[in-house]
Design a protein that fits this description.
Blueprint lengths: L1 H11 L8 H28 L8 H15 L3 E2 H8 L3 H13 L3 E5 L7 E5 L1 H15 L14 H9 L11
Antiparallel strand pairs: 1-3, 2-3
């Protein structure tokens, strides 16, 4: 009863009350599924339409960095260049741009100084979270990326009232 009164007092004072940890885990699963689906959607689109019509290397990089952060993984510069779908020199310029805008940061590998990693910054992670949460909230209606949710994302999608697309061959 004391905890409930303290929580109510916090609310009345305008202080935020932290949601339970399981709420963060569910949110992260949903955000991860949408980010992965968005990336796969772009890859699939490249298979069917001329790539030069849809070049967004910085977006592909942000999606890759966001998912890696949620998964607790590091992304090597070389791997991020590959994820962008553009030549390494072009990808390097986009990494520079992500750094200039405060969305990503490069750092050396502590074990091998020849290798660099790129990570999304807290600012970048917050921006991506807000954007992806807006898709989850349905603020913009239909998000085409949601049609490609994988099995991991299906459960999260159902929890949000989104019907996943049937798998091929089913």
């Amino acid at each position: 009863m004391a905890r409930e009164l303290a929580r109510l007092a916090d609310e009345l004072e305008g202080r935020a009350v932290a949601p339970p940890p399981e709420a963060f885990a569910e949110r992260d699963r949903s955000l991860r599924a949408i980010a992965r689906a968005a990336y796969r959607s772009r890859q699939e689109r490249r298979r069917h339409l001329p790539e030069r019509l849809f070049s967004e290397p910085a977006w592909d990089m942000l999606l890759e960095l966001f998912v890696a952060a949620l998964d607790g993984k590091q992304v090597a510069t070389k791997g991020l260049c590959g994820a962008s779908g553009v030549p390494p020199s072009t990808a390097s310029r986009y990494i520079d741009l992500l750094e200039e805008t405060g969305l990503a940061v490069r750092h050396e590998d502590a074990e091998d100084a020849r290798r660099m990693f790129v990570a999304i910054t807290p600012r970048g992670e917050q921006a991506m979270t807000r954007y992806l949460e807006s898709l989850l909230g349905g603020r913009f209606g239909f998000a085409p990326e949601l049609a490609l949710l994988d099995a991991e994302g299906d459960e999260s999608a159902r929890a949000q009232g989104i019907a996943p697309r049937p798998k091929r061959g089913s």
